[in-house]
Specification:
single chain; 155 residues; mainly alpha; 6 helices
Length: 155
């Protein structure tokens, strides 16, 4: 090639490098989407923590009375976690139909993927549930250590 035209730019790259160069924009979009997905999960967990802590703080007197009447720490933790998971269940009842509706419109953008994949949906629901559990455990354990005497005095 150099003997034919010495000014011709020649770039010799492997097929792997050429293919990688063709998909840089798609990889960037995939990485940004993953980053924003993880960020939204963290923000949802922080919000769940805040709501659960606020609800537990509002129920200090009730928890104090329950503990004074004989409820143990496990019952208090279960009480707070039930309230947190009621919120999660309500969110899933609203979010899952919206997810499937969005999958219908975005299905053409997902080359080679089924927008209604039950495994992916199950993993997403379990991930949300585990993050909500982790976010709700701290306020629940904190509420279980409320002294009944101090809770009744605060009233």
């Amino acid at each position: 090639m150099a003997s034919v035209d010495p000014n011709l730019p020649i770039s010799i790259r492997t097929l792997k490098e050429q293919v990688a160069g063709q998909f840089t924009q798609q990889r960037l979009i995939a990485r940004l989407t993953s980053f924003f997905g993880v960020l939204s999960l963290v923000l949802a967990s922080i919000g769940m923590y805040g709501v659960t802590a606020y609800n537990a703080g509002r129920r200090v007197n009730e928890i104090g009375v329950r503990m004074a009447l004989g409820a143990d720490r496990g019952h208090v933790v279960a009480l707070i976690l039930r309230g947190a998971f009621a919120l999660i269940l309500f969110g899933l009842l609203i979010g899952l139909p919206l997810t499937f509706a969005a999958g219908r419109f975005l299905g053409s953008q997902l080359y080679g993927f089924n927008p209604y994949d039950p495994f992916v949906t199950f993993v997403a629901v379990v991930t949300l549930g585990l993050s909500a559990l982790a976010a709700s455990l701290i306020p629940a354990f904190r509420a279980s250590f409320i002294s009944p005497l101090e809770a009744l005095r605060a009233e």
